[in-house]
Amino acid sequence: MASELIEVVNPTAAGVFKRGKLAARSHGSLNRRRIGLLDNNKPNADKFLGYVGDLLKQRYDDVELIPKRKMTRIGADCLQELIDRCDVVINAFAD
């Protein structure tokens, strides 16, 4: 009886970690801020942003959430409204 050898190949690469700096912040806190939640219309982006919005409400005082859904791949007709109304915008990409 001949024994067969099976080779198992792991297609994943070793993890690479790179340190980076955060972008400069113009607000010291999110308390009393208007926060835009921009959904890119992919599956589950709305669920993720709903979860993020709930966390923001728990952690910061008197935040106003402004949810918007981007309906096209290129641009969003709501971007100017978010720029005009919001202090901060969170954009979600989900699948």
Please write out the topology.
Layout: E1 34-39, H1 45-59, E2 64-69, H2 79-85, E3 88-92
Parallel strand pairs: 1-2, 1-3
Structure, described:
By secondary structure, the protein is α/β, with parallel strands linked by helices. It has a domain at 34-92. It has helices at residues 45-59, 79-85, and strands at 34-39, 64-69, 88-92. The protein has a three-stranded parallel sheet with strand order 2-1-3, sandwiched between helices. The mean pLDDT is 86.
List the defining traits of the structure above.
about 100 residues, alpha/beta, 3-stranded parallel beta sheet, 2 helices, elongated
Share of β-strand residues:
15-25%
* Sheet/helix structural class: alpha/beta
Distance between the termini: 49 Å
Number of strands: 3
How is the quaternary structure best described? single chain
Low-confidence stretches: none
The sequence of SSEs as H and E is EHEHE
Task: Give a summary of the structure in a few sentences.
This protein has two helices and three strands; from the N terminus they run βαβαβ. It is of the alpha/beta class and 95 residues long. The relative contact order is 0.26.
